[in-house]
Q: What sequence folds into this?
């Protein structure tokens, strides 16, 4: 006999299987969860009576008996996803079936404080609730820098002054009275690629996130790698050149400065994506130097992680597919050991709210029904 907590966990897993369409019938759900058909049926009945699942008519298959089709009830509630960096906050509302229903963004001033960031996050969650159907069921937050998901504390982020050991989950939970889950924003983006992007069928992939800084998120065997100190993927701290770090050369603002010949102290444009889009057709020595640097980074990661697919996120996606293909070509021409190993660098097709969608996915995956 399972205790109440175990049953709640199994019910939440059943919802995840149905929501992802890995299981759309009682039989498929029993197989996916390795339960007896009777036990799986009992969970389905409970979820239907709680108005979390629907059983929609009879779907006739090509062979065998007709089967009823399971779907989630989109109106059972909603999840808020928040993702931010030093320049802006992005928010998304996702319904119980995992469909995006709203997206918001707000800019942050250069001198923003941690207190002001939290205040803006609270405003955005309230704004996302407008026209929402059902109750807010959970909040996910993609936080830049180092995050401790277990404690809900944002440990450190270089680009917001004073952002150290912020008890963000507690503050949001006290305000909104729902479960709050934090993780690094790039790891949240990895969930967005899995739920909304091109990684649905991939067990192993890497998110490249050259934004204000430079980090990556690593997914191996379907699990997001966090590291012993929750700092896995902070490659922006790699030594790079003379007294520099990787993010000093390859973050999105740094790439824009290199392409335009600006000094390292030059302020970046308000709309960095558009500024980089205007440079997408540039072909010169500055671009070749950037391509070579990215090829070194990606080749090193590929030799270490041995994954086939990398997704480029952030403002550098504005440089187009040619930017990605030129990096791969450079790797194949310069790194002999990788000439026969397949490697893909794909420009993500998710929009600017990818991190917010991933954060909503984080809340969605962590949700469990009320006791």
A:
């Amino acid at each position: 006999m399972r205790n109440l907590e175990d049953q709640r966990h199994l019910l939440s897993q059943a919802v995840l299987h149905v929501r992802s369409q890995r299981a759309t019938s009682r039989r498929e759900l029993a197989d996916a969860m390795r339960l007896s058909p009777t036990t799986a049926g009992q969970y389905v009945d409970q979820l239907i009576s709680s108005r979390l699942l629907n059983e929609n008519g009879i779907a006739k298959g090509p062979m065998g008996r007709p089967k009823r089709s399971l779907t989630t009830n989109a109106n059972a509630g909603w999840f808020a996803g928040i993702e931010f960096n030093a320049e802006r906050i992005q928010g998304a509302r996702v319904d119980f079936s995992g469909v995006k229903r709203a997206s918001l963004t707000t800019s942050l001033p250069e001198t923003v404080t941690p207190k002001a960031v939290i205040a803006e996050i609270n405003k955005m969650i309230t704004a996302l609730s407008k026209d929402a159907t059902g109750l807010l069921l959970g909040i996910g937050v993609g936080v830049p820098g180092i995050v401790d998901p277990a404690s809900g504390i944002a440990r450190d982020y270089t680009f917001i002054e004073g952002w150290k050991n912020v008890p963000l989950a507690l503050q949001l939970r006290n305000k909104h009275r729902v479960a709050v889950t934090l993780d690094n924003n790039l790891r949240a983006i990895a969930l967005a690629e899995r739920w909304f992007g091109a990684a649905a069928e991939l067990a192993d992939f890497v998110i490249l996130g050259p934004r204000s800084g430079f980090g990556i998120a690593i997914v191996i065997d379907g699990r997001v790698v966090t590291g012993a100190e929750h700092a896995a993927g902070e490659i922006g701290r790699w030594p790079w050149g003379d007294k520099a770090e990787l993010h000093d050369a390859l973050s999105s603002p740094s790439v824009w400065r290199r392409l335009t010949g600006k000094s390292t102290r030059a302020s970046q444009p308000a709309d960095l994506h558009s500024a980089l889009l205007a440079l997408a057709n540039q072909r010169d020595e500055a671009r070749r130097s950037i391509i070579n640097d990215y090829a070194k980074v990606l080749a090193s990661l590929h030799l270490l992680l041995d994954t086939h697919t990398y997704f480029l996120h952030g403002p550098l996606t504005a440089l187009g597919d040619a930017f990605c293909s030129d990096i791969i070509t450079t790797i194949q021409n310069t790194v002999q050991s990788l000439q026969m190993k397949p490697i893909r660098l794909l420009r993500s097709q998710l929009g600017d709210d990818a991190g917010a969608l991933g954060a909503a996915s984080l809340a969605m995956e962590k949700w469990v029904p009320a006791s």
Summary: The domain at 76-192+354-366 is CATH 3.30.420.40 (Nucleotidyltransferase; domain 5). DSSP finds twelve helices and 15 strands in the chain.
